[in-house]
# Entry
Amino acid sequence: MAVVALATGLAAFEIFQLLHAAGYPSLSWLGIAFAVALVLDPAIGRGVDPSGMLLLATGTILAAVGAFTRTDPREGLPTWFATVFGAIYASLLGFIVRLGHEAPAVPATAPLGGLGADRGWIVLLILCVWAYDTGAYFVGKRFGKRRFLTHLSPSKTYAGLIGGIVAATVVVGVVLIGLGRPPVHALLLGPLLSLAAQAGDLAESMLKRAAGAKDSGRLIPGHGGILDRVDSFLFAAPVVTLYAIAAFR
# Structure
């Protein structure tokens, strides 16, 4: 939880920097605090509002009140929108924590039973995203010719997309066996997670293109910012959480 909350705060900071560079004003520090609060909410406990909607409403109202200070309503309105958007976008990383809380039980006799449900399902998420990225890179580099969505990312190819999906599906099947679950679910979960991871990467690319930036930040020398490292998980974590709940509970 602490690692995810820290990563969310750093990612939110980079998101608001990019939004500012793209011409969207925001209340960045309020947005960062809002994002971290959304992540901490499921970790602290269910409280009075398990859905989290009360916290979401509170943050939205505070952002609106803060935007009132902008003398030009044409600046105040995008300030409100951008603050809420940036906070919610960064807080999607909190679904890693939610996945740990909501993960279906893992039989003690399963090969990965010693990890427990929370760590076991988070391992599945991480390995799937890594497998997709690795498969997409090597297959795309070797066979990639036809490209897609070049206005967002010029390096994405259909061959890489297929290679990533195949690699991720195989890895998900292996991990599901380790978690004591039927590997046939990998035929659906693998492609879903792969497409979500790719969409997360493209969403960040769109933000960086709008801001005229190559990387989200300079936190990691040679690798950009924290958002560059977690962009795929922002979309993939909610997908695996929803699938785990819907299919196995």
